[in-house]
Design goal:
GO molecular function: endonuclease activity
Oligomer: single chain
Radius of gyration: 25 Å
Pfam family, one: RE_AccI
Number of strands: 12
Largest sheet: 7 strands, mixed
Protein name: AccI family restriction endonuclease
Order of helices and strands: HHEHEHEHHHHEHEEHEEEEEEH
InterPro entries: Restrct_endonuc_II_AccI (IPR019054)
Shape: elongated
Keywords: Endonuclease, Hydrolase, Nuclease
Distance between the termini: 25 Å
Number of helices: 11
């Protein structure tokens, strides 16, 4: 069974409430104005793409990375942007969404096209693209993941311990109250709380105020609930494919039959997952919460996003040297000024064995 056929079979198992592949995608209208934050995010994404591009081409002896994804320096509000945006929408409807990078065997690399084919029309490169061994969608995140992981682990331990102490205090000092028939359900809840169950514990805080001890007990239950809520908060960083992109990535795979992957670049490490694995997760609701969650991303225009736990993915770069950065002034129409951050240089040290395993290649 060829790659696309495997992907097609997976799409049949995904609930239509998540992605309905039988329905055409919603075509979007061009934005009319860009913000400084949007441009900074775009610059960061461009840097992440270039980082992985350079890492592959300086490290591999048998493979070549080529820039392929549709991109332009134009932003909303500038002359020519609307035309570029609509052409991009047309391409999404015809061949789907180009991955940012393509990886070719060196024997298949076409030097006449060079290392950047992003501006070439599909009709010129269609057969060439089909020779790629992988398409890479590069996402970026403004975090140091190692520091984040350490702080989240400490946070969880701190509030787990605090919850246990409050539980023990309640059981040792207020057992007589909780033994009353109408309050025994709270005793049952307390007895269920441990390190393994705390992530699924839920209860309504009592509001007892008939005497001082009942008021004190109500406050303790409030503190217990607050600590449990913190333990239950999502404590992982994620790889973040947008739901709306899944259809257009699928369309591209249908056209070219090239395996597709998502890479998430942090400022100290990078992680990756195959598109096939992403679809598989969406067919396994029992993994929601631990492996992934689906939610609207307020940082991305409230678009519905799959947030995949990086701990359940593969490390692509075990170390990243941070880029240089500088401020840029950009003058728009009517004298409107935008100031944003641009990024340059930096180095990614690839985890070769993990990358080979993810891309299913040998002799990198």
């Amino acid at each position: 069974m060829k790659y696309f056929d495997e992907i097609k079979e997976l799409t049949k198992l995904i609930p239509t409430s998540i992605v309905d592949f039988s329905q055409p995608r919603d075509r979007t209208s061009p934005p009319t104005q860009a913000s400084s934050n949007f441009i900074t995010n775009k610059e960061q994404g461009d840097w992440a793409e270039d980082l992985i591009f350079r890492a592959i081409n300086t490290t591999s002896t048998n493979y070549v990375a080529v820039k392929y994804g549709k991109s332009d320096d134009l932003i909303a509000g500038e002359e020519g942007f609307e035309k570029f945006y609509n052409q991009f929408q047309d391409e999404l409807d015809t061949i789907g969404k180009r991955p940012d990078l393509l990886v070719f065997k060196k024997d298949d690399f076409e030097e006449s096209f060079g290392y950047n084919i992003s501006k070439l029309d599909n009709s010129m490169i269609e057969e060439y693209v089909k020779k790629a061994v992988a398409g890479l969608e590069i996402r970026s995140s403004a975090f140091l993941i190692e520091k984040y992981e350490n702080e989240m682990q400490n946070r969880t331990i701190t509030h787990l311990n605090q919850a246990q102490k409050i539980k023990e205090k309640i059981l040792s000092e207020y057992l007589d109250i909780l033994s009353q028939p109408k309050k025994k359900n709270y005793l049952e809840i307390l007895n269920q709380i441990n390190e393994d169950t705390i992530n699924i514990i839920s209860f309504r805080r009592p509001s007892w105020n008939a005497n001082d001890r009942l008021s004190e007990l109500s406050i303790l239950f409030q503190q217990l609930k607050e600590n449990i809520n913190i333990v239950q908060k999502r404590d992982y960083l994620s790889i973040t494919p947008k739901i709306e992109d899944i259809k257009v990535v699928y369309k591209w795979i249908e056209k070219f039959n090239v395996p597709h992957y998502y890479f998430q670049v942090f400022f100290d490490k990078s992680y990756g997952i195959s598109f096939e694995n992403i679809l598989s997760l969406l067919t396994e609701p029992e993994k929601e919460g631990e492996y992934y969650e689906i939610s609207k991303d307020v940082k991305n225009q409230n678009k519905t996003t799959v947030k995949i736990n990086t701990r359940k993915t593969q490390q692509i770069a075990y170390k990243i040297i941070e880029p240089e950065h500088s401020s840029v002034r950009r003058e728009m129409g009517r004298g409107r000024l935008l100031f944003y951050v641009t990024f340059d240089k930096g180095t990614a040290y690839l985890d070769i064995d993990s990358l080979k395993s993810l891309l299913n290649i040998e002799n990198f």
